[in-house]
Design goal:
Shape: elongated
CATH topology of the largest domain: Na+/H+ antiporter like fold
CATH architecture of the largest domain: Up-down Bundle
Subcellular location: Cell membrane
InterPro entries: Cation/H_exchanger_TM, K_uptake_TrkA, Na+/solute_symporter_sf, NAD(P)-bd_dom_sf, RCK_C, RCK_C_sf, RCK_N
Number of strands: 10
Pfam family, one: Na_H_Exchanger
Strand content: 5-15%
Transmembrane segments: 6-23, 35-55, 61-81, 93-116, 122-142, 195-216, 236-262, 274-295, 301-326, 338-361, 383-401
Distance between the termini: 52 Å
Protein name: NAD-dependent epimerase/dehydratase family protein
Number of domains: 3
Length: 635
């Protein structure tokens, strides 16, 4: 359709809002990013299919609408960027958002230039945008794939930080293209001006909002609602004011305001976050519909093999390279590195900012054409097509394949571990956590002493700071999803309380406790908690070294060269078969030592017949035991 009149604009806006809400509902239902449904809806309504929406549907207001939408999206991302979390993040996470981002930026720019023949400036504009992954596409994946906390934290932090930095860098490159800046000095000056204006305006707005939220009476009855509206208005004002002072400085301003306000101790923070999330949902609809309206299948097809080469390079070469470089020397396993490499879908920021830039490119091209500068206008139109086509192709491909197949990728790479909560980050807790982590489990330590917390984090452990005897702390650390809870502090009263809370408030498969005083073992076991008394365990270990030195030496290697694992029989091909028949099919470096059935555990004879649900103990070389586990319990 052509331009929409005022009568047609109201149902159009209502339809787009409805699409956004439905897309979010479908996203929650199927656990995939809402980007998939928004893009599909945009294509359907766009000029290439039904033709209900076109670039002219909103008249001259489209750029303003998309610009304000981008401001809200960037502000929300910046609001969730916590500086203290960045300080606590492992070195690998910091490298992901620095070294990794540079590799993505440069690598993508080079590939776009040589594969598509795009000008260098446009190539690096695309490169800057495709640095961003974003929490809106990562969060649904992490809900479906319960990976280790260190993996989830790294992916989540990367998405939040790169959303903001990618948008700011892209703005500078875009402005350089529009103003024809090419020299390095001029580019640095342009960057400093836009960033400087944005930081100053954003800081002023953030300071004003902080003062208003802290010290101004917002009407006690409606204070949360007024606080939400005030923050929304502040985000839009910071964008508009900075953009008025210096073109395209608005994104830096909303990013600055969001970061400063998000890291300040402001009242009604939860209400503000929830409200901004709802508003973002609505504006995302406009952004993706606008992107689809700008998309021409002919331009997309014109990318040809070059476009496919860009997608393959971004997903299969550049992403794995930056992940492996960033995580070198850290505690990430090879499987986790590959998972992070193959699960990095692009989403909100690339789409929204690319849409804003493409609209500006085409408006500038129209102006140049009217002035008789047809060649320059053609270059800008071609740049807009490359920008939209490439960004759209990468988003659609990575979301469909990487987000859609994330669960299957995780299962193939075996990166979904058992979740274990260890309360107490002292020497006992850390030693246990290290053994479990070496075996591939997802271990979270809970510790109240800040000095101990820092020590454990420096050793590479995931640590939740707080009182492990507090239900809210346990829940925030992931007790709802924990299979095992271990109370390992040096205080028996704390361990007893933790055991009671775990049993009554959560539903772990097992609760284990450390008893520092052997006289307290009975109190623990009355709760059904398996308890290890430190003094008794030490005496038993010493006795084993005296009477059974060979076995004790071998047990000391468990988790390194040797291993012992208890696993449930679920493989149909093993049910009804004897140990004699199954034994030759196991790896040569391991054997079945024990079988537990209905609470009774025995050393099985060769003619013992396995049943589904039996729990067998496998002993042997570490890698062979791991292989045997998958053979016995393939699910």
């Amino acid at each position: 359709m052509a331009a929409a009149g005022g009568a047609n604009l109201i149902p159009l806006v209502a339809a787009i809002i409805g699409i956004g809400v439905i897309s979010q509902v479908l996203s929650d239902r199927f656990r995939v990013p809402s980007v998939v449904f928004l893009i599909a809806s945009g294509i359907l309504l766009g000029p290439e299919v039904l033709g209900i929406i076109s670039p002219d549907s909103f008249g001259n207001a489209l750029q303003a609408i998309v610009g304000l939408s981008v401001a809200i999206i960037v502000f929300e991302g910046a609001f969730h960027l916590r500086i203290d979390k960045l300080r606590e993040a492992p070195a690998a996470t910091f490298r992901l958002v620095t070294v990794g981002a540079v590799i993505a930026f440069v690598g993508t720019g080079l590939v776009v230039h040589y594969a598509l023949g795009a000008p260098w400036a446009v190539s690096f504009l695309v490169g800057a945008l495709l640095v961003a992954t974003g929490p809106t596409v990562i969060a649904p994946i992490l809900e479906v794939v319960p990976v280790r906390d260190r993996v989830g934290t790294a992916l989540d932090t990367e998405g939040i930080v790169n959303d903001v930095t990618a948008a700011i860098v892209a703005v500078v490159i875009f402005e350089a293209i529009i103003e024809g800046v090419s020299s390095p000095n001029a580019l640095v000056t342009l960057f400093a001006e836009r960033l400087g204006v944005g930081v100053v305006v954003g800081a002023i707005v953030a300071g004003t909002l902080y003062y208003a939220l802290q010290y101004v009476d917002l009407s006690p009855g409606n204070a949360p609602q007024n606080a939400r509206l005030l923050v929304l208005a502040g985000a839009l004002v910071s964008y508009a004011a900075a953009d008025f002072v210096a073109t395209e400085a608005g994104i830096a301003a909303v990013a600055t305001a969001g970061i400063l306000l998000g890291n300040a101790d402001v009242p009604y923070e939860e209400e503000i976050s929830a409200f901004k999330g709802d508003i973002t949902l609505l504006v995302l609809s406009f952004v993706f519909i606008a992107l689809a309206a700008l998309l021409e299948f002919e331009s997309l097809l014109s990318l040809g093999l070059g476009g496919i080469a860009v997608v393959l390079a971004v997903a299969l070469v550049i992403r794995p390279l930056l992940v492996f470089v960033s995580t070198a020397g850290d505690r990430f396993t090879r499987g986790e590195k590959f998972f992070m490499s193959f699960v990095g879908p692009r989403g909100i920021i690339p789409a929204s900012v690319a849409t804003l830039f493409a609209i500006a490119f085409r408006e500038e091209a129209t102006r140049l054409a009217a002035e008789g500068m047809t060649q320059q206008a053609a270059v800008l139109n071609e740049s807009a097509s490359i920008l939209v086509g490439t960004v759209f192709l990468v988003i659609l491909t990575t979301v469909l394949f990487e987000a859609g197949l994330a669960r299957q990728i995780a299962e193939y790479l075996d990166v979904i571990p058992m979740r274990v909560l260890v309360i107490g980050g002292g020497k006992v807790g850390r030693a246990l956590a290290e053994r479990l982590a070496d075996r591939g489990e997802n271990v979270v330590l809970i510790e109240q002493d800040q000095e101990v917390v820092q020590t454990a984090r420096n050793q590479g452990f995931t640590v939740h700071h707080g009182d492990g005897a507090d239900t809210d702390v346990l829940r925030s650390a992931g007790a709802d999803n924990a299979k095992v809870v271990v109370a390992a502090t040096g205080d028996d009263d704390v361990n007893l309380l933790v055991s009671q809370l775990a049993n009554s408030k959560f539903d772990p498969e097992r609760v284990l406790a450390r008893a520092n005083n052997p006289d307290n073992v009975e109190a623990f076991e009355e709760l059904g908690v398996r308890t290890i008394a430190s003094t008794i365990a030490t005496a038993q270990a010493l006795d084993n070294y005296i009477e059974r030195p060979s076995m004790s030496n071998w047990m000391g290697e468990i988790g390194r060269s040797g291993d012992v694992q208890e696993v449930e029989v679920t493989a149909e091909k093993l049910v009804g078969r004897t140990i004699r028949e199954v034994g030759p099919e196991l790896p040569s470096g391991c054997l079945i030592a024990l079988v537990s059935r209905k609470g009774e555990t025995n050393v099985p004879e060769a003619d013992f017949t396995l049943q589904e649900g039996d729990r067998i103990t496998i002993i042997g070389k570490r890698e062979d035991v791991r292989t045997a586990e998958k053979f016995v319990h393939p699910e």
